[in-house]
Write a structure and sequence with these properties.
alpha+beta, 4-stranded antiparallel β-sheet
């Protein structure tokens, strides 16, 4: 009888171990599914970039890093110039192609650690850590030149990029307002040159 009891306990332990392994497998599958859902929730539906939701979270993280470590960080807002004219003249597929082109170009010209997101119709947001004000200004000019130098089949694309530095006491709204205002100053300056 003792051997039958021991065999029964061993069988139960084996069954529990198998059930435990099956549950852990299910947990791993659910974690992978959750990670994919989070990736989709943070991805722009057109470009290979993050979306506004992810961008705002990254701006908040930059604020925390600047407050904690004192390392500089820049936030940029970029606006594709003339997207409506592209859409009107050549159709929305051409406009989408222009947005994708800008997205791919921005991503290719930045470090892997930099954040690039499409935050609205023709607007892009960037977060660049460990970049001082002079380097941020130079990078904004370089990025605009890179986009203009890599035109689509239908011609060059212009983009206006404004930047601001993350400062102590900043909020997401104050940073975005300053970067947006800087972008509009660049846009007005470019129009005056035409």
């Amino acid at each position: 009888m003792g051997s039958v009891g021991a065999a029964g306990v061993a069988g139960e332990e084996t069954a529990l171990a198998q059930e435990n392994a099956a549950l852990w497998h299910e947990v791993r599958v659910l974690r992978l599914q959750l990670a994919e859902l989070e990736r989709l929730a943070d991805s722009d539906t057109l470009t290979p970039l993050l979306n506004r939701r992810a961008f705002l979270r990254e701006v908040e993280r930059a604020i925390a890093r600047v407050a904690r470590h004192g390392t500089p960080a820049a936030v940029m807002i970029a606006d594709l110039d003339g997207l409506k004219a592209i859409n009107d003249a050549r159709g929305h597929q051409a406009g989408d192609a222009a947005l994708m082109h800008v997205g791919y170009t921005l991503r290719a010209q930045l470090r892997a650690t930099d954040i690039v997101a499409r935050i609205g119709g023709d607007e892009f947001g960037l977060v660049l850590d460990e970049l001082d004000a002079d380097a941020a200004a130079a990078k904004a000019v370089t990025l605009a030149a890179d986009i203009a130098a890599a035109p689509l089949d239908d011609g060059p694309i212009a983009i206006s990029i404004g930047h601001t530095m993350v400062e102590a006491g900043d909020t997401i709204d104050s940073i975005i307002a300053r970067a947006d205002a800087a972008m509009y100053r660049v846009k007005r300056a470019q129009r005056s040159l035409r």
